[in-house]
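Project standup — Tuesday

K.O.: blocked on the structure for the chain from last sprint. Re-posting the sequence here as requested.
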Amino acid sequence: MSQQADTAPFDLISLGRVGVDLYPDATGVPLRLIDTFHKFLGGSPTNVAVAAARYGRRVAVITRTGADPMGEFVHDALRSFGVDDRFVTPVPGLPTPIVFCELFPPDDFPLYFYRYPVAPDTVVRPEELDLDAIAAARVFWMTGTGLASHPIREATFAALHHRHQHADADAITIFDLDWRPELWPDVSEANDTYSEALDLVTVAVGNRAEVKAAVGEDDPDAAAAALLARGLRLAVVKQGPLGTLATDGTERVVVPPVPIDVVNGLGAGDAFGGALVHGLLADWPLEQVITLANAAGAYVAGQLACSSAMPDAAQVASLLAGAGMHVPDGLAAEATAPPRVGGQRG
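H.V.: unblocked you, prediction finished:
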């Protein structure tokens, strides 16, 4: 990598959860009866970074692992996917988290988090952040889970406040609402914490349960309106089989889902997120951005893996064409261009 590329602002920096996913080698079988598993890099904001890198974006993730072999695996995997791991540091004495899941397609994928006594990714501290890199990034991605515990909550807010004060006017700050109440030691703190974060971001993304946790509305249009009323530029509400609603207050689009035989739905939202980042940075029309994101999510839902299944432009275009759906112009052009990994685009 050239010195210029190494010092250039990142297209995306994500902050939050990382771990190792262990997925069973059989579907429809209870976990207690599974003998063998497949190992993958995991953690939602980490997977979003991987997904964005697949479109040639220059990305980094801020997180922490254990000082153990699984932590070394995380670094190996990140580098193999073209994700900069300079902000990934070990925490002695804490194990790298493991996540097991069960596979009951099409819509039941129970998760079992092993993040005890605490997960290293919750021990990201404000004083460890490269705030200048965060402010310079074209997109900063943070999650609701990153607000659930300390000290990562303080680190997340330090990053948000610094970026709010110092980032360029056109910088994008995305709040993945990522509502996982099982990861909150005190769920009663969630409402005020989410509300504070919403004042510091420009885009919010979530399904109906997640937007309800954030703004008290699960009707997609009402939730989107409530998010925009907080000063956001874009609200994205996933509606499952009804497609995805996105609105910036001027334009409203509802993009239908891409039909797929679901194998594992767990990584679909992360693929959606990485594609959303790419489409927004490419400055595509809103409907094309959400079409790309929906299709990327569908592609991963049809695979066993999450991180290693993140598609590139050609794979997403092929899926849309195979389903008889329109391939957005920008995506069609990228699908036929030479692949670029870790470079600047858009």
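K.O.: great, moving the ticket to review. The CA atoms of residues 19 and 97 lie 5 Å apart. Residues 10-320 form a domain with the UDP-N-acetylmuramoyl-L-alanine:D-glutamate ligase fold (CATH 3.40.1190.20).
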